[in-house]
Sequence to fold (872 residues):
Amino acid sequence: MVFPSPSAALRHRFERRSRRLEAAREVRESLVSLAGLIGRPVHDGDGEPLGRVADVVAHWNTDETYPPLSGVIVRVGARRAFVPASRIAAVGQQAVTLATARLDLRDFAARAGETALAAQVLDHQLVDIDGARVVRAADLYLATVGTVVRLVGVDVGFGSLLRRLGPARWRTRPTPEAVIDWASVYSFDPDAHHGRGGVRLARHRSELNTLRPAELADLLEDLGRRERHELLELVEPDTAADALEEMDADQLHQLLAESAAADAASLVARMEPDEAAEALRGLDHADRAAVLAAMDENAAQRLRPVLEFRASTAGGEMTTVLVLAHPRDTVADVRRMLAGQLEHVVDLDAIIVVDEDGRLVDDISLGELFVAEPDTRLSELIGPPWPITVTADTGLREVADRLIDARRLSVVVIDDDDRPLGRILADDVLDAVTAGRRWQFPRAR
Amino acid sequence: MTSPTITTPPRPAMPRRRWWRRVLLAAAFAGPGLIAANAGNDAGGIATYASAGAQFGYQTLFLMVLITVALVVVQEMCARLGAYTGEGLGALIREQFSLRVTAVALGAFLVANVGLVVSEFAGIAAAMELVGVSKFISIPVAAAVIWALVVYGSYRYAERVFLILSLAFLAYPIAAVLAHPDLGAAGSQLIWPHFTASKAFLLLAVALIGTTITPYMQFYIAAAIADKGIGPEDYPKERVDAVGGAIFADLISMFIIVATAAAITTRAPLASAQQAAQALRPVAGRFASQLFALGLLGASALAAAVVPLSTAYALSEAVGAERSVGKSFREARLFLSLFTGQIAIGAAVALIPGNLIQLLVQAQVLNGVITPILLTYVLVLANRRTLLGAAANGPVFRAVATACVAIIAVMAAAVLALTVAGWFGVG
Fold:
């Protein structure tokens, strides 16, 4: 847009700004603050006060993005009565108006699949999936969409907390400054005994699985005990296993120790062997044996050799996922082998060539393989640079020094007879070397 | 084999630092319970216990036994809350009480801890005065250094130095034995209640409660247990740590009282750190002042960082900014401003001219007055079956815990009433 004069541009900007403010005001007026609504009067159709709002109940086990209200708990004297949504004419910022004059004074009893918002969601932990963070609800916003009142957003602003501390007049006025759309919020099941599953969880499952492992690990560390287990059960086991690899060691050990052996085994089996061994090392003997016993035999076999070595030696930190080939194999053969190991591809940066006795001959990087012709035999690729090797009892410091000297990305761990046992990647060494450097809150030493 | 191409922080695992590693290993084995309870033996604690010994001799020993019972009960409840919910007290209070009631709790906690920070800086100043440095130099420098160490992340190393310095106070039990205390008097005072009905005794009693059952320790133990992920399965082990830690910490406190009571017989309020240091004379001879200064500096500097950090953490947790704190400290605005504010206020108040040792004791009185407020929250939470299920307080435990909290509350209320009356010239 071209403006004839600077003042016209200014005027245009001013108009746009005031239109925006107008829109913001409209939104603010159509939102109902849940924290503000608690304690406000409930009127009957004629405007006569019947009682006060004690809580607002919403359908929880629903596949709808924005949970519809199922009713309001009204405090009349010392009693708490439930008014179903069908009897409510309007939910406003200042009051709830009923469509009927009659009030069924039966005491409220919680029903499965419903949640009292003020008691069980407000001030509790929620997961903001888009932002990949744990938040605490400072306020919840309701809005009337068509004829149905729905929970539409959660406020996490500090300002809203201050507003709730202030006089009653402030409390009812929404201050939507830091609001998260309810569509991207994962809320926990307030009643663990509801039983897992249900349509609500199904909707969230796919969203949670889009989180990166490191993000998921952060979420798990920030959550309370019950919430942590709920979240973990919800994500795909593979995603969960990746997240566990990123978790703080203490927390991870506790998480595994308090999971059922079968659950722990299925998670650990999906972790990379070096990380899995690290996780198992933190458990006591009985727990570790139980987890290994519950594990698929293949996975357990990959772990046992690593577990025999001490932590922070080459043997204790290596991954046992190796692709072994013989000099007579062709590049195409190796590619087929690699295709079968796709899940471990982050732990593979080279393949190992062994002779007939299983002794190490060479270590051929994936780059070399990539540029070679499919029918080339590996024997033609053997040559310098020769692999760097260490024995299983080498300290990690020395492994780091060897990596630096040779400018390679991994070293091969061999036994006394030159047979390859595993591989240590540069990133594992980095983890070990920088372990003390990550900022940790000094309160829990 | 060394490599010049990479720079890494010195790691404790290097062989020539083996002794260092051993100390750290011991610290690592010390569970949250032991660490939390022994945080009570900080600068304020030393000053208060020494004051008690100097002013009332062995008379406060029986009180210390009662306080130990209360401390055990309280620390156990907090440990249980942390283990069964996986959340700190700040978050629990926010979830379980209305926002206004939460604000009262956290406000009280903040005030108590700013009081503690004041006392830590007073402790640093008292230590530095023993070696001839004016507090008008030592306090601003210490505040700046501690702030920078924490914010720029080299705190972890400084912390170890402070921790080792504060081990100087392990000399107290030895001093208590070498000083040949009047065992008969100490023993009878230990098992037979002796209360003096004076305002000074009441004030000191509340200071003793405040420094031994500090609100800070309750938040610390719950948060540390939640952080470490200790759960219901491991709780029996953790309970041993919580109870044992509380008892151990109070034994040390009683040794401090006995050592000071034996060494200083003026039976008047402590006038200076110089005087308090005399209690260590049986161990350190003419170096008693220096040893006392080292210990006081270590303990104070350690707590001057950890107390504002935990306060900021608990408040951020209750507000709902958990994540930002753990990940990127410098970007957490609320956290950083809470931390900075406490250091600034603490240092500024400690600069007000006056008797440093008495300032230390007064900060503990403030804590003692606030303690029952927060203990009430802890008690209500630990009683709640909806929160803890079968792990909630049973009837007997509930009765004992309620009695402890009630007695502390009555004493705190009395101190408060006397103080307010004092403002109006009564009493």
Remarks:
- Confidence is low (pLDDT under 50) at residues 193-197, 437-445 of chain A.
- DSSP finds 20 helices and 20 strands in chain A.
